[in-house]
Write a structure and sequence with these properties.
254 residues, mainly beta, UDP N-Acetylglucosamine Acyltransferase, domain 1, 1 helix, 31 strands
Length: 254
């Protein structure tokens, strides 16, 4: 029914779906539900108890892959197809939709909301109370902060809207909203809301143009944004078909 390595510990009350695989030296706590065909690598800790949780279980959707040394706290929910790199950490009271990818050494603090098909590359840090919508890309070493006067308890999470791209080593300050299909350039420090479709760069970041005027670097002469017109790797067929249908419409705002 499922496969548990003999060096691992799975609490008797944990609920494992059909075809689940648990790797060496992994701990699965009791307040956990793991969906069918999910694979969890070595030295992971799944469903860590914490007084900061709301008492609900950690639920990991079917067909997920959690790589070695990753840690997930209780009271969180992840849709089907979750994938992590190595040593990812996700704190309590976090929810995420389908197809979420978390890169190696990335960390998500508590009480965050993540949409469908969001992709983090390596070493991404997401402060608590952040809200990330669908199809967002966050590149290596990006930091989403949440404390406007550190150290304090006055936390203000960032908001990242659908299809936005946060480039490498960018910093988004507390309470900032990055708009629909916006692009944050590498090393930018974003202290003000970013309008939809706009590119921001610099320290502090300022608007430098419209994403739709950026051309691809392949000499094709075609626009690089919206990226959904030409980048489809790893997305389900039905999503790609939706993008293609939208691209053929006069209004490509959604």
């Amino acid at each position: 029914m499922f496969s548990i390595h003999p060096t691992s510990f799975v609490a008797p009350n944990a609920k494992l779906g059909t075809g689940v695989e648990i790797g060496p030296f992994t701990i699965v706590h009791s307040n956990v539900v793991i969906g069918a065909r999910t694979k969890i690598g070595a030295y992971c800790e799944i469903g860590v108890p914490t007084p900061l949780s709301n008492g609900s279980s950690l639920e990991i959707g079917e067909d997920s892959l959690i790589r070695s040394h990753s840690v997930f706290y209780e009271s969180s929910y992840f849709g089907s197809g979750l994938t992590t790199g190595h040593r990812a950490t996700v704190r309590e009271n976090t929810t995420a939709g389908k197809g979420f990818q978390i890169g190696t050494l990335s960390e998500i603090q508590g009480s965050c909301q993540v949409g469908d098909y969001v992709r983090f590359q390596s070493n991404v840090f997401v402060g608590g109370k952040t809200r990330i919508e669908d199809f967002v890309w966050i590149l290596p070493y990006a930091v989403l902060t949440n404390d406007p006067t550190p150290p304090s308890n006055d936390l203000m999470g960032c908001v990242i809207k659908d299809y936005a791209v946060i480039s490498a080593m960018a910093v988004i300050l507390p309470g900032v909203e990055v708009g629909l299909r916006a692009l944050v350039a590498a090393h930018a420090c974003v202290s003000k809301d970013v309008p939809e479709h706009m590119v921001v760069a610099g320290v502090p970041a300022r608007v430098i143009g419209d994403t739709r005027k950026i051309m691809k670097r392949d000499a094709s002469g075609k626009p690089a944004y919206p990226w959904t017109t030409h980048f489809h790797r790893g997305y389900p067929t039905e999503i790609i078909e939706m993008w293609q249908a939208s691209a053929n419409c006069s209004d490509y705002e959604t």
